[in-house]
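Whether sequence alone determines local backbone shape is best considered at the level of individual chains. Part of our work consisted of pairing the sequence of a single chain with a tokenised description of its backbone. This step matters because it turns folding into a mapping between discrete strings. For completeness, the protein is quoted in full, as a sequence line and a line of structure tokens:

_____
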Amino acid sequence: MTTADRTSGAAASAIRTSDIVINATPGAGSLERLTALRGDLDGKLLIDVSNASTDGPDGLPADLLYPGSSLAEQLQEALPGTRVVKTLNTMLYPVMTAPTMLGVAPSVFLSGDDAVAKESVRELLTSLGWQDAWITDLGGIQTARATEAAILFVPHVIRATGFKPFAISLTQ
């Protein structure tokens, strides 16, 4: 048995005993990894926090892997029995579970076709400290294109300000 077989087997076992699965795998390989687990993911809520991009010479995101689409859309199409919700992908990772660490209220977005799944994700976000006013439901899964495109902004922010926590913030 190879290391990949053991890893896939462990993932399948964990998925089978969970109602909610979080995809935080590198976006370039997410579709292949999760499609291999299609049967185990059937009926599950999949929270996709990954961004599928190609890396530039400095290792930072340089371009989108699915131009004209998104990883979330690709996952939903490949996993029709899974309820995919895209969220938490427009911030540096420490902010995901500690949104109050920033001096300004951050925004988090929801994209997905299943209203019940998005409500479950909203509840999870509020349990992590996200205030309801900071959560914006953008609509169907196709709206993930916009939030995934935000990854192209990240290298420029990191180069300009350094590797420190940040998030997009909507002000109205």
